[in-house]
Amino acid sequence: MKRIGIDVGGTNTDAVLIADGKVVQGVKVATTPDVTSGVAAAIEALDTAVDLGAGVDALMIGTTHFINAVVQRRNLTKVAVIRIALPATSALPPFTDWPSDLAELANGGVWQIEGGHDYDGRRFAPLDVAAARQIAREIRDLGLKYVVVNALFSPLDPSDEMAIAAIMHEEIPDVSVTCAHLLGGIGLLERENAAILNASLIALAEETIHAFEQAKSEVGLSAPLFVTQNDGTVAEAARAAEYPVFSFASGATNSMRGAAYLSGLKEAVVVDVGGTTADFGHLRQGFPREANAVVHVGGVRTLFRMPDLVSIGLGGGSHVDLNSGAIGPLSVGYRLSDEALVFGGNRLTATDIGVAAGLIDLGDRKRLAHISADQVRNVLRRCKEMLEENVDRMKTSAGDVTLIAVGGGAFLVPEELQGVGRVVRVQHGGCANAVGAAIAQVSGEVDQVFQGVTRSEAIASARKLAEARAVEAGADSESLALIEAEDTPIAYLPGNAMRVRVKIVGDIRSTRIRKSNKEEVTCQSAS
After folding, report:
1. Which 3 state secondary structure label does DSSP give 160?
2. Is residue 416 situated within a structural domain?
3. Can you tell me the distance from the alpha carbon of 216 to that of 352, in angstroms, rounded to the nearest whole number?
């Protein structure tokens, strides 16, 4: 198996070629403003190592396009939101807790109708089918193509969401419907917010995937395209375009998976120091630990599958103030080779400090002659404090941990840190993010409430459903493995209710034959 893994960062676009489980070649090229040409350049840089026309089995790309669009308030599409919960929740309509500027970009209209289920799974109110059909016609007349459907307690019973989605497709044949139960768990507003963000990004996702396909074609690469997800796995390009929110934070998770692969460690803290940020995460069985609490994305409360990460403004391109010793959070980003002092620029960066300290050999060190040894030590001391503070935030116990340092800016990580037993550095660590993309598997995940069954029956049912989702997403059924199983009793629900989370991963099926299921008819399916 030969794969190319690519990760588009704020400063560099990294690419690796992996053949038979070994890293054959790794390259770095500057990230370009349009991103796509940087991807093409990264693929071309590998041309000396492989026949791109026939020798590659898969191309895996990680991108920050989608989360950047939310944070930077750009390229978002207006969304029609249908909430099925009346007469219960009209006091807090959709977009209630959104930043006003972001809501203005995404809010294409809000409709609320009767229906949904109660906390114990019983029907709360009859679904108003006639009102739903009228709403579909109004949405069609407004020219809206992206719709979110969110029903009260839909993770317990998604039937109302699926029924409304079917009506939308009947009235608006080319509509894109995001069913909220496929994205989030219990928590009406958070689940709804995640679904709205997803729907508002689908047009950008389709455009981005098309651009990646075009870049692939331009360099003569015929391998199928996969896009990395935020749980350390990948999805086929078409599926990734349906669910762009599942690519949020995928760059950091790529680095964590790459760190686990290159080091052989399954349990450790990972710090990925790039050009703009340092991202901290915790490996559990070789995969990123998942966040269990509300995650804010661009100022919006969400509760869906996201890695437990901490990001700080510390990277190779971070601005440095010699007077205070402060580092970041501003960064020169992909302009490092133009603006850093060692390259003839006029901006002092963390890379310049690394060169002055002898940690890395780049550019012209003579340009740093005016920086004193005390000033260098002061900046590096502040860097050490930042690293120690955030490693401690990721720890789950008081003892020392193993820290894997990867990324192009890993030279900023000292050998000794408080709370760290040892610092592990790996070959090709500068491209760990691309390695993580290249070796990624396909996942199937379930986060669902079960009632009226025993604990073992609930876990078995969740596992079976997760396995089916993994196979449907393109995994080889013979390679499936259980990565995580967690059950939590819910005291306020009757019938021995429990929340069960199960994650299954498997290798990419060579034929990538996808089976259809009932949910694909009415809602976009989720892996």
Report:
1. helix
2. no
3. 35
